[in-house]
């Protein structure tokens, strides 16, 4: 798992449910709070703060992660977080009223959510 901070810790802990061996490659300082670091230790997740510079393997297969210091760590799979961003604004295009944060404004009965993601 490539990541750091609370989000990286949470993702690594989730991956631990699927795999016996999980390493959190922080790609620099892990930025973990003490509580998150302790949870990772208890779960058996290794945290590696060395900067990652290259993914190694034949063809399109991942075999290892190379670090800035020239060493490598065997790795057969790597979860890389990505940010998904909507490329268009269909609600705005249709002229629908928006609420904050970008959400469709809807009439609602008391106690129901304010809107739906736009």
Please provide a brief summary of the model:
By secondary structure, this protein is α+β, with helices and mostly antiparallel strands. The protein is 22% helix and 22% strand.
> What is the C-alpha radius of gyration, as a whole number of Å?
20 Å
Distance between the termini: 30 Å
CATH superfamily descriptor of the largest domain: FAD/NAD(P)-binding domain
| CATH architecture descriptor of the largest domain | 3-Layer(bba) Sandwich
Main beta-sheet strand count, sense and barrel state: 3 strands, antiparallel
Number of DSSP strand runs: 8
Tally of separate helices: 3
Portion of residues within helices: 10-25%
Low-confidence parts lasting 5 or more residues at pLDDT below 50?
Answer: none
As laid out across the biggest beta sheet, the strand order is: 3-4-5
CATH class of the largest domain: Alpha Beta
Gross morphology is elongated
How many discrete structural domains? Answer: 2
Q: What value does the average pLDDT take?
A: 88
Structural class designation: alpha+beta
Q: What fraction of residues sit in β-strands?
A: 15-25%
| Strand and helix order | HEHEEEEHEEE
CATH topology of the largest domain: FAD/NAD(P)-binding domain
């Amino acid at each position: 798992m490539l990541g750091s901070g609370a989000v990286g810790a949470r993702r690594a802990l989730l991956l631990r449910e699927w795999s016996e061996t999980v390493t959190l490659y922080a790609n620099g300082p892990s930025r973990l709070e003490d509580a998150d670091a302790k949870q990772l230790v208890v779960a058996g997740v290794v945290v590696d703060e060395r900067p990652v510079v290259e993914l190694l393997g034949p063809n399109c297969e991942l075999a290892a992660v190379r670090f800035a210091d020239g060493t490598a760590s065997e790795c057969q799979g790597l979860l890389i977080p990505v940010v998904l961003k909507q490329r268009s604004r269909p609600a705005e295009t249709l002229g629908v009223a928006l609420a904050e944060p970008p959400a469709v404004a809807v009439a609602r009965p008391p106690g129901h959510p304010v809107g739906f993601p736009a």
